[in-house]
Batch of 4 targets.
Target 1
Amino acid sequence: MLQNEIVKNPEGVKEEYLKYLNVAFTNWGEEHLYSWVFDRQVGDLTTDQLIIKREGNVIAGSAVTYRKIALGGADIINVGIMTGSWTLPAARKTGCFTTIIEESKIMCRENKVPFLTAFVTDENPSSRRLAAAGALMIKSWNLFAPKEISESKNQINFIDDFEDKKSQEVIYQKFMEPDGSTVAYSYNEAEFIGQFIKRPNVPIILEVNGVFVIMEEGFNAMKILVTTARGIPQLVEVLNDVNQWCIQHHDKNLFFFTMDEKIENEFSKLGYTSKLGYYTVIDCDNGSSPELIEDVRINMGDKM
C-alpha cells in the first residue's frame, strides 16, 4: 500500500493550493478569496494548513481555521473549522478525507483547541466519514424562499455607505443585542466587520424597520449572511419583505442558514424549501463534551 506524506503548514503553498482548490471545486475562486479565507485571523490563532502527498505528488489538502465561541457569561473557547478540504479526482475514495480528519484533530490539540467542527450537507459523502470519526451530528438547514411576489409590509432602506465607520458601529451594536442565545460565535467589532462586511464579494445591506440584513448575491439566489431580527415572528416578516426586494431588484429569491428546528418548521410551512445538513463537532482532547456547544447559534456568514 502506498504511503502518504503529510506536510503541515508548508511555505509558499498559496499558488499550488489555490490551483488544486479550483481543480477539486470548479471556479472555487481567486487569490483575494484565498487570502480572506486562509490568511485572515479571527481571535488568537492563525490558520493551519496541510497537504497530502503520495509518491511525491500532491493529492489532497485541507485547512483548519479558528473561531471563538461564547458559552455565556465570560467564558469563551476556541474551535477549529475544517475549511477548504479537497482531494484530487484521481485520489478520491482512497482514504484521504479520513486522514485529513485525524490530522486536523492533531492540529487542534496542539493549539489546545477542544473541538474540531465542520459544515456538511446530508448528501455529501464527507458527512458519513465525519460520523464514522465520532462527530456529534447537529442538524442544520439551508432554507430557500419561494420565488413568488407578495405584499411587503415595511419600507426597505438600502444602505449604500456601509464603509462609513458610524454605519458599521450601528450594525455591530444591533448584532450584539441579546437574542436569547447563550452560545454563539464571538467577534469584536473589527472581526465582525471583516467577517460580514469587508468580504471578497461586496455585500448588500438592507434596513427593514430597524432590522439590518446583510447578504451576498449568489449565482442562483441571494445568500443571507446575517440578520439582526430577534424572534421568529420578526424574522418571518423581515425576510418576506427582503425576499420581495431580491426578486424585484435581482430576479432571485433568498436563502438562509439555520440550526434552529423551530425556524425550519415555521419557514417550511411558509413554502420555503429545506435542505438538510449538519454542523459536526469532534472532541479533540479526549475530555470535552461536544454537547457543550450543541445549541450554538450560527449564521450563514459565520461559516467562511
Target 2
Amino acid sequence: MERINPDRGSYTQRELLPLLRVKPHVLRYWEQTLPLVRSRRDDAGRRVWSAGQVRMLVRIRHLVVNRGVSVPAAGEALLREAGGETARVKAGLEGVRNALVVLLIKVQSRAGGAGVAGEAGEAGEARRAAPREEGDPPAAEEHSGRTDCGIQVESLVDRGIIPPCPPDLEEGEYRAAPVRLVSRSGEGSPDSVPFVYSHLFARGEPTRVASMLAALIRYRVREPGPLVIAVPEGEEPLYRSHFPENALVLGVPRLQYGKIRYDAPTLSVLATIASNRELDRYMQRHDRETIYLWAADNPHSTVIDYLSARARHERSGLVLGVHPGVTGYRLAESAGLYLPVWRPRFGETARCGRWLRESGAPRYRLWLRDLARLDAPGVLVPAAAGPSVWRGSSWDAQVRLVWPDVPF
C-alpha cells in the first residue's frame, strides 16, 4: 500500500480510493457514520481529506475489513487509540448510541402559564407562584406536564401536546425531514443572543465538561456580549463557576416516561426557550428578540450569527443553518429563532417529531433538523475545514482531537 505523506495538504477521492481499496459508496457510508473522517470541499469543489483523516480511514479499513468490527465500533476504537482513553470507554459504548440517538418531547405554546423549564423544589414553586412582573413577555406553556422530576411525557400526551404512542410501534431507523434550501447566508447579525447547547449531548464528568466548554467558548468568542449556556438542571452552580457573571446559566429539565428518566437535550432547550421567565428577563435586559442556537464544540457551527436576521422574515420565525453534504444538505447545528413569531407556534414545533422504539422502549424523538417540517428553511452558512465532533462517552477525546490549539 502506498505510504501516506504527512506533509501533504490533502487527498482527493481519486487518490484516496486506491489507498483504501474500497468502493466509493463504502467511503460515503463511513463518512456519514463517522464525522471525524468527513471530507471538505477545496477551492475547485472537490471532496478532499487531510493526511490525518487518511490515516484514520486506513485504520478503519483494517478494523472493518480485516477484523470484522462494525463501523461505529471502529470509530470508537480509533478514538481510544488516539485520545488515550481507558477501558471505561468500552463499557460505555452502548451509552454512546443512546446519547447520539436523541429522544425528545415537547410542550405546547400558550400565553400566560408557568415555564416548562421552571425550577424544581420549593424555590421553583415559589417562583412559579409569584406574580408576573410588569413588562414580562408571556410564557409559552400553560399545561406543560412539568414535575419536580422533569417533564412528564404522559402528561403531554394526555393534553394533546404530542401524539400518543402507537400500540404497534416497531424498532426502526429514524429518518429526519429534508431541509429546504432557500438562500445563502448574508451578513452576520449582532442583534441576537447566542445560546450554547450541544454539550448537553456529551457524556462525561460534569466538572470536566463544564471546564472544557468554558475553554472552547473563551477561544471562539472574542467579543464580549450576552451569552446563554444551557446546562443540566441542578448543575447550575457548577457551571456558573466557569463563566463570567454576564452570562446566563440556564438549567434545562430531563424527561420521564413511565418509570424511566432520560435526557432529551433538544426538547429541553426548546421548551426552555419557549417559556423560561429568567430567559425572558435576560432578553429584555439586552433588548433582544432573536436567539442564535449554536454548538460551541463543533467547528462547523460558526460563532457568527448568519441566521437570526433571516428568521425575522420567515412565517415560522425559524431558520436552520446547513452545509452541503454527500447526500444532501447537512445541518450545521445552528438555528435562528425570532421569538415573537416562533413562540406561538411552539405546539406545532412539538409535533414535528415521532415515536420510535429503541432497545424495547418507546421514545418520542425529535432532532433539530426535524423543524424543517415547520416549514423552517435552510440557509447555507460558511463551512469550516476539518472534522466535526461525534458526541458520547468519547466527547472529551474528540474535542481534544478537533480543537488541538485550545488550552484545556
Target 3
Amino acid sequence: MARWSLRSKLVTLVALALLPVLGLAAWQAKLQEEASVWHRTAALGSVSDLAVARYDNLFDASRRLLSAACADESVELSASADPAAATVGRCGSYLSKLLAAYPGQYSSALVTDEQGIARCASDPKALGMSFADRGVFRKVRLARDLVIGETIASRITPNAIIPIAIPIIRDGTFRGMCAVGISLRALAQVTAQADGTGGTAVAVVDRSGAAVGGDATAMRRLPVPARLAESLTGGQVGFSDFGQDGSFYEFRVRPVGGNSLFAVVSAPVSDNPLASNRPWVVFFLVVLASIGVLTVIWIGADRWCVRPLRYIQDFADKVARGESITLSPPRPWTPEVASVGAGVTAMAEAIASRESALRANLEQRDHMLREIHHRVKNNLQMISSLLNLQAGEIRSPRIRRFFGDAQNRVLTLSILHRHLYERSSWSLVDFQQFISDLVRQISVVRAAPGQQAPRYHIRAPIMAVGPDTAIPIGLIVTEAVSIALTHDFSKAATPEIRIETSERGEEVQLVIEDNGVARDGGAPVPEGKGGFALTLIRGLAMQLGGEVTIERKPEGGNRVIVVFPRPAADEPANA
C-alpha cells in the first residue's frame, strides 16, 4: 500500500468507511426479506386455519344433523328390508322438512337397509335405488362411524355432492346407512367466507387434485391436478408452483373432513424482480450510491489533486533538465495545490539562480585553469629555449646531449599543458594526439644533419587520460624515443620507430621499439645516458603501478614494454 497513489488511498479509505453502511443496509434488507416471508407464511396459515375451521363447522353441523335424523323413530324403522308404507312416508316427510331448514346446503338425504337399498329418502325417486356400490356405503359399513365420501355425481339430483353418512346400529348389528349429500354450492359459500385479504384465495380439492369447491378465481390459481395430486400424496404442506392461469403462487395445503378433502390456500408471488426482491432494492440502491460516491471521489481526486501534481512533477523534471519554463497551469487550482505550485516555482527559481552562479564560477575556474596551463606551457617553453641557448655555449658533445635530454623532458611537459588548455575538458588529454605531437617535437629537436630520419608508426586507442597518467607515459616515450634516436639506422632497409598502445582487459600495454643498431654494439643501451634513462623509465612505470621490460631485439634495436593498469574513469578528478 506504500506505493499506492494518493487517489487510490483516498478511494480505499472512503470504501472502508462505507463498509459499515453497506453491512447495515444488507442486514436490514435481510430482516425485511425474512419479515416479508414470515408475513406471507402467516397470512397463508391464518387463512388456511380459517378455512379448515369453517369446513370443520360445516361437517360438524352435518354430523349433528345426521345424528338427530337417525335418532328419529321413523328413520330408524325405515332401515329394514320391508318397512311399512306409513313409516316410509313419515320418514320421507321428516327428511324433506329437515333439509328445507337448510336451503341450498344439502341436496338430498336417504336411509338404506343393510344391503344398500334406499328405503327412505327426501326425494321419492331415490326409493329402491341401490347404493351398495358407493364407496361411502362400504366405508360406513366397515368403520361404523361418520364417513365423508369422495366427490360423486348424485343419482338423485343433477349436481355433484360430497356424501356424509353414519351407520344405523341395532343390537350391535349394522342395519343400514343414514346419509346426506352436501352440495358443492355450500362448499363454495364456505370457501368464499374463508377467502383472506392480501390476494389469498381458498379452494377445496379431493385426493386426485380435482377442485370440488371454491370460486372461479381460486380454482384457476390451482396447479394442474397431477401436480397437486403429487403434492398431496407426498404430504407436502406448502409448495410454490405455477397456477393454471400462468401466474406463480405459493400454496398451503390442509386436510378437512378427514383425509378425503383438502383446503388449498394460494397467495400470488410476484414475478417482477423489483417486487419480489423489494427488501434488497434499497440495499442495491445504497451500493449504487456508494459506487457513485467512490467514482466522484476518484474523478475529483484526479481533477483537483493528481493532474495538478503530475503537472508540477513534469515542471520539476523540465527544470531538472535545465529547461527554461514557467509554471502556468491550464486551469485554476485549489488554494492548497496552488500553494504547492508556488513553493515549487520558488524552489525552481532558487535552483536556477544557484545554477547560474555555479555555471559562472565554473566558467571562471575553467578560464583560470586554461590560463594557468597556458602560462605554464609558456614558461616551460621559455625554460626549453634557455636550455637550448645554454647548450649552444657548451662545446662538449656529451654535456650538450645532456642539455638536449633535459630540453626534451621540459618540452614533454609543455606539450602536455598545451593539450590541457586546448581541449574542452581541461583535465583530460587525447592520448593518441598527445603521443603524436610529442614524437614529432622530439624528432625535430634531435634531428641529426646528414642522417636518415626514421619513420614513426604510432597506433594508440582513442581514449582520454588525465595528467597523472599522461606525464609518466609522455616521459617514458620521450626517454625511449631519445634512446632509439641514438641508434644507427643506416643498415636498416626502412628505418622506423614503432609506438603501439593496446588495451587488454583492465590493463594497457605500451610498446616502443626500433630497428636501429646501437652504436656501441654491446650493451642494450649506452652507459651514462642510457643508465639514467633506464632508471627514469622504471621509476615512471612504478608511478603508473605497472611493470617495464627492456630488451635488445635479435635483428637490432631495442624494445621497451610497459604494462600498467587501465586509468580509472574518475582519474581526472584527482588531476
Target 4
Amino acid sequence: MEKEKRTHRIPTGMSVPPTPKRIKMEEEKMDFEDPDEQRHDCVLVVKEKKFYCVKATLAKHASFFDKLFFAKNANKKTKEYKLVDPETPEGFQAFLEVIHGVKSLKDENIKEVLSLASLWTAGVAKNRCLEFLSSDQCQMDLKAKFQMACELKHIEAMATQAKKGKFVIEEIRMKFDDPDPRKHDVVLVVDGQKFYCSKATLAKHTHYFNAMFFAGYVENTMREIDLGDPSSADEFQIFLETVHGVKCLTDENVQGVLRLSVTWLADIVRNRCIEFLMGPGTKKTRKETFDMSIELNVPQLMMSDPPTTAAPPPNPKNGFKPLELDDNGRQHRMEFDGTDPNLYDVVLVVQGRKFHVSKAHLASHSDYFKSLFFVEAPEKTEHTLIEPINGTELQVFLEILHGIKRITEYNVDPLLRLARCWRVRVVMDRCEEYMMGEGRDGRSSKDLFALAVEFKLVRLAKKVLSSLTTNFELNSVIPESIADLDQDFKSLIFQKTLEIEEAHKRPPPPLPYHPFRLPRLDD
C-alpha cells in the first residue's frame, strides 16, 4: 500500500491557504448543502430540504444510522434517504452541527435535538443537550425542563434528574480503529498508530485537510498517510474526538490540541480549546494561559496583560484591592473572588464564573445596574449575565471601573459593546482615549471613523478628521451616505469640508526677498 511520510505542517508542494477571518464563537455554523460528490456519500431529506452528509460520521454517532447504512440487509445502492423523525430542517441542522462539534444549541431547538439524540441513540449529541440544559446559557426554568423530559417519553428516565435541576453526564469516548472499508476512506498514521477517518469530515473542519484531500494533490489518491504534525497519537485522538463533539479536553492535552487547531486552521476545535481555557474546568493559571496565547498566537486568550503572582491586601474602605505596582511598573490584577464577605453584596455570574461586587459602586456608574439592583430585583443577591461573551471580558470591564488600565487592541471592541449596552460612560471614555492614542496603531482612518460612528465617539471622530488634508482622503474615510449619521458627525464632516476648501483657496505664500529678484506686484 502506498504511503508517504509527512514531517512538516504542510505537504510538499501544497500552498498554505490564507488564514481565515477569526469567527466569533457564537457565529459558528456548518454547511451541509455542498453537492460535491467527493464530499458526501448520502443525501438526507427533511421536509424537502436536502442535507449532504457522510455515512461513516453519522454511523459513528448514532446506532440508527449505523443500521440504516451498514446493516446486512441495507441497500448499498441507495444514496438518498427521506427522514420522518425530524420535525423541522432547522432541528436536524442543529443535530448535525452538534455531532460535528459546533455549539448550536438554543432554547428554541434543544427539545427537538434531544428528542432526535435519544430516538437515534446518539450519545454524544445527548450529552451536549444535557450539558446545555445544565448551563447558564439555557434560560428555561426548572418547570419547563421537567415538562420537556416528561413529554419525551423515550427519555422518561431524565424526568427525575430534571426535577432536581441536575443531569448526570457520562462522557462517551470515540474510537477510530474500525478497519471496515465502508466506514472510512483514508488511514492517517501517527507514531505507528492508525486512525480510520473520513476525508470529507476532516475537510469540513480544517483548511489543511481540505487542501490535502480536495485540491488536486497526490494525497487525494493515497489510502494511507503518515502525519508528522501531531506530537503523539493521543494528541491526535483528542483532536479527532473534539471534531466529533466529544468533550475530552484536559489541562494535560489542551495545549497540544490547540496547537494542531491553529496549525491546521480548525476554527471549531480552536474555539473549544479557548472555551476550556477560559472556563472553570481548567486549573491553569492566568499566566500559563497568557504564555500559551503568545506562543501559539491566539489573541482571544490575550484579553489583558499577564497577571502577577503577588496578591495585594484588601482595602475595606472601597471594597476592592489597591492599585499596587509590580517590579515592572504594571498594575496588579484585581480579584473579585469574594474572599472577604464584608466587601461585596451581590454576585454576578458569567458562564459559571462568579464575580463578587458592590451594588452601589456599579449602580453609580451604570443606569442599567442601578435599575437591576434597586428597581427590578432588589432582593436578589445573585444575577446571571448573558451579554458578556466570557468571564474574562467582565473581569477587564470591572477592573477598568476600578481605575486599572487593562485596555488592549484585542479587548477594546467588546468593552465598547458592553459599555454601550450597560450605559457606562467611564468605560466608554477610557476606550475612546485608548483609540485616540496607542490604539490607533494597526487601524485605518476609515475603520477608526466607523468605530467612532458606531459607538458615538465624537472626540475620536474629530481626531481622525483632523489628520485629513484633501477631499479625496475625506471621501475615503466617511461612509457613502451620511444621511443617517447623528448631527454631531454631520457637523464635523461639514466643518472639515469647509476647512479643506478654505485651505485650497488661499494664495501661495510670498517668496522670500532676494536682492537679484524683482518684487511681485502683490509683495
